[in-house]
Amino acid sequence: MDDQLALRIELFRESGQVRPEVAAFVTAELDALGAEGRTVTEETAGTLTSHLMMALTRLLNGEPIAEFPTDSEITAELAGHPDAVARARAVSVRAASELGAPLPDSEINFLGLHLALLDQNSPPRHET
């Protein structure tokens, strides 16, 4: 993770927009993506970071977005990105375990879009 992305997370946390445990959870998820060989920077993962922090905050505040008008279009777009969808669902499972609540399907879809874009810009490194 580059300094600008770390600063983004810190600003969200220090401003009170996200809880410390949400910032820690998102930081761990970004570190895991980086450990898999992806380039995780402000440029490649800035919007993913903000989206995940705000989605988790809405969830913990009891204000999850359960449905978007574009859900069907997003689901269709994700049909070509099964790895991103699987990763988004795994993040939701970890969120349930660590923060107490899974992401709703609409948030999983949006996270999947961000992860698919990250994979296009910085695919994971595969061990040979």
Any overview of this molecule?
This is Transcriptional antiterminator. One of its GO terms (biological process) is regulation of DNA-templated transcription. The chain contains 6 helices and no strands. The longest helix is centred in the middle third of the chain and has 19 residues, at 42-60. Helix 2 runs antiparallel to helix 5 (82-99). The chain has helices at 3-14, 20-35, 42-60, 71-78, 82-99, 105-121. Helix content is 70%, strand content 0%. With 128 residues, the protein is an all-alpha fold.
Distance separating the two termini: 24 Å
Elements, N to C (H/E): HHHHHH
Main β sheet profile: none
Strand content range? under 5%
> How many helical stretches?
6
User: What is the arithmetic mean of pLDDT?
Assistant: 91
CATH H-tier superfamily: PRD domain
How many domains? The number is: 1
Protein name: Transcriptional antiterminator
